[in-house]
Amino acid sequence: MAVTVDDKTVKDLSNNMAVTVDDKTVAELRNLADRLRIDSIRATNASKSGHPTSCASMAEIMSCLFFRVMKYKLSEPRDKSSDRFILSKGHAAPILYSAWAEAGLFPVEDLMNLRKLDSDLEGHPTPRLNFVDVATGSLGQGLSVACGMAYVGKHFDKASYRTYCLIGDGESAEGSIWEALHFAGHYRLDNLCAIFDINRLGQSEPTSLQHNMEVYRKRLEAFGFHAIVVDGHDVEELCKAFDEASSTLGKPTAILAKTYKGYKFPTISDELDWHGKPLGAKADEVIQAIEQQMQPGTSTGVPHIAEPVNDAPEVNIDDVRLSAPPAYKMGEMVATRLAYGTALAKLAEHNPRVIALDGDTKNSTYSDKIKKVSAERYIECFIAEQNLVGVAIGAGCRGRTIPYVSTFAAFFTRAFDQLRMGAISQTNITCVGSHAGVSIGEDGPSQMALEDLAMFRAIPGSTVFYPSDAVSCERAAELAGKTKGICFIRTSRPNTAVIYENEQAFSAGKGHVVRNHDEDDLVIVGAGVTLHEALKASDMLMESGIKAAVIDPFTIKPIDHDLLVKEATRCHGRVLTVEDHYSEGGLGEAVASTLAEQRNVIVKILAVREVPRSGPPEVLLEHFGIGAKAIAEAAKKLVAL
Asked: Disulfide-capable partner of 573 in 122, 256, 399, 600 (CB 3.0 to 4.6 Å)?
């Protein structure tokens, strides 16, 4: 799908660029840059906190981008056809707010509300603002999101809009930046422009490379970028670089801007110990010095903004459903990870905006099944899970796609910060983690997800599905695509029996009693593999004259409070939970939490309580106390209390 253009062609294209920027435009852009500086000083002084020096180093970049280069609509900042902009160095939020204010989106005076409780102009950008696509500020994440946006623009929307991402030099030490650079270079995202604000200074000391621009250039070129080194305070150089980027085919562009932190701030510029500090009593003096350098006679009104080409297609991401219902036989042995792949293909058949992303585990998670429907809708992100999640978040922005992201559940832990920021970003993605728990067997503890439920439960607004058979897994995949926020589907490696009829209805927050008797002595709550172990234990207990009901919660978050209260009350207040997960933060604690205010209820939690080891799955389940025999023994002790 990538355009193939050799390096000579790229060089010839850029050399043939006859770019001129008239003197009037240059003067206006310089003055606008200084207005952005002054706005940032005043806003951070008003809030008594913030990063004015970090804003000052990128003022000319922002001026050129917002008032000459980018095409966007003030009337609809997240318009589908507008250029995208991600401020990866989110601590420079004041200058982003200033750019939109100077463009005319809201009064410049509102900048004085920076960081106030009743203002959406927060310390770092969030999508509470209608001109922000994703939250940034946890450094190193913006470029992955931009890659997702650019990939969608190039391959799915096939539209004219471009994606720009501004990155700080300090955050370029993050590995996630280099994962994203590899992705962009590999897929030749020539509609992506990464701008590095290389101002030399970090928070507490100079950055490792400081102003070694040649090293930056060589590194970016090695990752497949067309790299352009510029004076980041020269608007004419910047304009030419952006024009060159827009005409470069076959590879993304990186503009490496040499800048100075606190530029134009007398006695502060390029000095340490000013990171994250408002100017305080120095503000008036600095503003006066900047104003004296501004060119008189240039326009002070709202600058002209270019309209985007309205060529991004209308899409529908709300109609998410399986193209055909589940089709299994009761008792058939099917792994839920395989059922997920089947469901993904059905969802893709019905809605052309369903896409799949994976980190080189597609033949284990079965996400590769989407390729039988549409190979183009599968995005291989390779073994780079932070970038995998970031690209998915970007792909889902502005409602352009319905992303399903899969890998081994254990490996999502590597991307927890991306998921955490995704929740702040109001993102809508579905993460599917396979190979959960000790039931994977011989691969051993490094591959066993035993923290994943706790991790995803902790994410604000998340929904956590834990299907126990193929039918419920297909429905979980369908429901997740309709559910706002971050969804997680935990799938299992072993084959398990189909226990639901194909017509069974499911919904988030509603569990199912899969076994009960008259006068049950206790209720066992299991999910995934342990639900089937609980059913076996129920059979064993019956031989001992103990009747045990069994509940499948279907979702761990939200958990079915009403069902659990009802069954706990009916079963004499005896509740036994069993999970292939560590005890902290999983199924047991979810059940205990929802029953915490019920009188006369005892919750006994069976879980993996130590770092496991390799072995056959059945042996490991019993060894770590979550197999059928262990469940039956725990049930007998609970009934005897």
From this structure: 600
